[in-house]
Amino acid sequence: MHFLNLSPRRMMSAIFQLLGSQLVLFGLPGMLYIIGSSLQKREEGEHYQVFLVAFTIVWLGWYVFLSIGWMRYAFVPAVMSTIFTARLLADLWSWINQHHQVCPRRLTFDPKRLAVGGMIVMLILSGMLPLVKQIVQSPDSGLREMAHYLNTNVPDDVVIESWEWEVDLLTDHTYHHPPYEVTNAYTEQIWYGVPVPPNTYDLQAFRPVYLIVGPFAKWTGLYPQEFLEEECTLLLGAGEYDLYKVEEREE
Q1: Do 163 and 72 belong to one domain?
Q2: Angle between the 28-40 and 46-65 helix axes, to the nearest 10 degrees?
Q3: What is the mean pLDDT of the chain?
Q4: Which of 70, 163, 189, 224 is most buried when burial is the number of CB atoms within 10 A of its CB?
Q5: Each residue of 205-225: pLDDT tens digit?
């Protein structure tokens, strides 16, 4: 379902996501450079680089044409592509070291410093500063407070319904997560406006005692507000995470 999904809408969405991810700036030049240099040189050690480029291209091709189109599936090849651009910059640096002496002496700037400055400007223009600010000044989401409350107040053997997989890493409780069919249905609703079929998911069938509603569940609207108000009791609100006690359904 996630790995073999032929959908023209998702293909276009995946393409636009790649174009908006700075891959064109930080990955594509390096891949083209490695391919071009491998066609001109037959030196030992070039073959493994071509293999890595081919591996990256195949992965990105699968992401665009066959996958469900979630951006996290492209993280690995996108990161790998920066290795080739790093090689391009390293070779460019070596070329500058070898040839800067032939520059006209009337030039008042150092080509090496100009190259470094250009790379810094490229990073700034590509949106690096807002990203760094978001990482450094990211507010507390409430995840650790929620995990601490669960560890100290909730028995380990009860079922906790949740769509927030990160909570699993901080506690030893028993969780039930919605299956992929449900996540795909709600994803299609958000991305493409496809209505979620009625009775797609009944969490009560799994008899959870507690329910955690976090950022992903709130974004998708998986757990209706009417259900939370009528059949649940709010126990804790910690940042972006809410813990509910689910009322037992009468048979």
Answers
A1: no
A2: 140
A3: 81
A4: 163
A5: 888 999 999 998 998 888 989
